[in-house]
Write a structure and sequence with these properties.
Number of helices: 8
Largest sheet: 4 strands, antiparallel
Shape: globular
Low-confidence stretches: none
């Protein structure tokens, strides 16, 4: 949803449906004006998920914070913890012990998948080229147009424009900088993983235009606007 008010309205309807079906339901209104993680694209996002479950991503990272909020609410709804706050140590423990990553491995095995990607996630993003996307000027990463970033990844094959289109799971965009980070002119703020270069120039232009570089550091933005129970 493009407006918070519309998101709250939709989430409230969904929680009400859950209640009417005698299911405990919670909705989180989260920010989607910027990429939540650093990865945009199937293989890149899967590699990032493996990195989170492996404990390679700091617990204060915005991706982990939202994941912990979602998982914490699931534990609370299941009666396994009293609150989201008390769930966090449990979540940290299963990552530290390796149980979280082993559960993913078990799921892949049950589905007949290749678990070697768990140990070698770079195989998910093996592309012909990795193209740096350079900042046109110095400053701070300001407003980001997540929709345009997504469309830029679509242009290089990470998504479908039509049902008949094929998806290349290895390609996509890896952000090197986030909202509020300082960047120098000519520094790579992102990398584009590419196989088919037919739309590369257009995708690069779209990505550069989707990221605003501000003179001053922008104000901190909320990750979770509201929780609806």
């Amino acid at each position: 949803m493009e407006k918070i008010e519309e998101a709250v309205e939709l989430a409230s309807e969904m929680v009400a449906i859950g209640k009417n079906m005698n299911k405990r339901t919670v909705a989180l209104i989260t920010d989607m004006s910027r990429p939540l993680g650093m990865a945009v694209g199937n293989g890149l996002e899967m590699r990032e998920a493996i990195q989170v479950l492996r404990g390679d991503v700091p617990v204060d990272d915005q991706l982990v914070r939202v994941c912990f909020a979602l998982a914490g609410n699931m534990l609370k709804l299941s009666g396994l913890t009293d609150s989201v706050e008390t769930a966090v140590p449990k979540l940290q423990a299963v990552i530290k012990s390796g149980a979280a990553l082993n559960k993913l491995r078990e799921m892949i095995e049950q589905l007949g998948g290749d678990t070697s990607y768990i140990d070698e996630p770079d195989k998910l993003v093996n592309t012909r080229r990795i193209v740096p996307v350079l900042a046109p000027r110095s400053g701070y990463i300001g407003a980001m147009d997540a929709k345009q970033i997504g469309l830029a990844s679509l242009l290089i094959g990470a998504g479908r424009e039509h049902v008949s289109d094929s998806i290349d799971p290895a390609v996509g965009i890896l952000m090197r900088k986030r909202y509020g980070d300082k960047v120098s002119c000519g520094e790579a703020f992102a990398s584009m993983y590419v196989n088919d270069e037919r739309n590369l120039a257009q995708a690069l232009d779209m990505l550069v235009s989707a990221v605003e570089i501000s003179v001053s550091q922008p104000p901190e933005m909320k990750l979770i606007y509201k929780t609806i129970e």
